[in-house]
Design goal:
Layout lengths: L1 E3 L6 E9 L5 E2 L1 H4 L18 E2 L8 H8 L1 H7 L1 H5 L3 E6 L10 H7 L6 E5 L6 H14 L5 E8 L23 E9 L5 E8 L9 E2 L15 E2 L3 H26 L8 E4 L4 H10 L7 E2 L2 H4 L6 H11 L8 E8 L4 E8 L5
Parallel strand pairs: 5-6, 5-7, 12-13, 12-14
Antiparallel strand pairs: 1-9, 2-8, 3-4, 7-8, 9-15, 10-11, 14-15
Helix pairs in contact: 2-5, 7-8
């Protein structure tokens, strides 16, 4: 378990900016390919109305470059180019041996003191990135940081001809987001809680028929190895972990969960969205999700939903925003609270 609850100097999440690739793809797209699947009726795989897919040849750096444009427009190119810390997460790395941090820094014209590529954060990577950025900046390692997260598996892994017929294929969507963090008291990060559940590491697997390691040549396309038993475990873990880290943060900042002004989470499916909101005792109007527009955005879900809430006027300056998520089959979870400073 790691906890970050220091505030000297204060570090703020100033803004977020997002990119959703291409035109929305309707649920009928996958319905036309649907075949007999033992998991077809499982509540984990009830399809969203729409989602977005990356186009062939699009890289993580391409997606971040498009996502960061809103920050450039609102804060200036020098603020982005001059960031001292760059933290990235890519769901499907363009190359298996390294992350996208170097390519993203080069594309954005940056020369950061620190570049960190995250893998273990999964769907909670934006929160893990906030935690790391806060520690770097609070310890004097710079004045500004970017946290860039990319979900690019929907249009590449889940749209393979042998995978798109499966129930799991219709849920994910693609997108990218970039957060701007700075030494500032404008929108202070009040507290962060990150927890690793190592006993569950490895429970998320790649399934190929006939079986082989993901890097070995052979027939068959890889997908996530879901079974009814695994789904039951993931549902139980997610239902427990997200409220746990959320309550831990709220307890330390002295705010009851039902008094939080806005809850933002990752969005694996409608079941989790309902259960988390009810567990934290929040009404629907103080919980934002884009599931039916974007599907499961993995790590991009938290910042995309925050951006939507800001754009739609659901969060105002001074409001306490609680972000929470869990990753993979439950091997990591995180929550962060921010006193939003408004979008300028």
């Amino acid at each position: 378990m790691t906890t970050a609850s220091f505030a000297n100097p204060p570090v703020s999440l100033l803004d977020v900016s997002v990119h959703l690739p291409g035109e929305p793809i309707g649920a009928e797209y996958y319905a036309q390919y649907a075949e007999s699947d033992a998991l077809r009726d499982n509540r984990m795989f009830r399809a969203p109305r729409h989602r977005h897919h990356v186009s062939p040849g699009t890289t993580a750096a391409d997606m971040v470059e498009r996502a960061v444009q809103g920050l450039i427009e609102r804060h200036g190119e020098e603020m982005v180019r001059g960031a001292d810390v760059l933290i990235t997460h890519t769901q499907l790395p363009d190359m298996p041996f390294y992350g996208a941090g170097g390519a993203i820094a080069h594309r954005l014209g940056m020369a950061p003191r620190h570049v960190v590529d995250l893998h273990n954060g999964g769907c909670a990577a934006f929160i893990l990135g906030l935690s790391l950025a806060r520690m770097y900046l609070a310890s004097g390692q710079g004045r500004t940081a970017l946290v860039a997260v990319v979900q690019n598996a929907a249009g590449q892994i889940f749209d393979q001809p042998g995978v798109r017929a499966k129930a799991q294929a219709a849920v994910p969507g693609d997108g990218a987001a970039v957060g701007l963090i700075a030494v500032s008291d404008v929108a202070p990060i009040l507290d962060v809680e990150c927890r690793t559940y190592g006993e569950f590491a490895g429970d998320m697997t790649i399934a190929v028929d006939p079986p082989r390691l993901w890097w070995q040549p052979g027939p068959g396309e890889g997908c996530i190895g879901f079974t009814e038993a695994k789904i039951t475990k993931v549902l139980a873990r997610g239902n427990r972990q997200v409220p746990e880290v959320s309550y831990a943060v709220c307890d330390r900042i002295g705010v009851k969960t039902h008094d939080v002004d806005l809850l933002v989470t990752n969005q694996p499916n409608r079941v989790f969205l309902r259960n988390w909101r009810e567990a934290l005792e929040l009404p629907p109007e103080r919980y934002v999700d884009t599931f039916d527009e974007c599907g499961n955005l993995f790590a991009a879900g938290v910042p995309v939903n925050l951006d939507r809430a800001v754009s739609d006027g659901k969060v105002a300056a001074g409001d306490v925003v609680l972000m929470a998520a869990f990753a993979h089959a439950g091997d990591f979870a995180g929550a962060a609270a921010v006193r939003w400073g408004g979008r300028h």
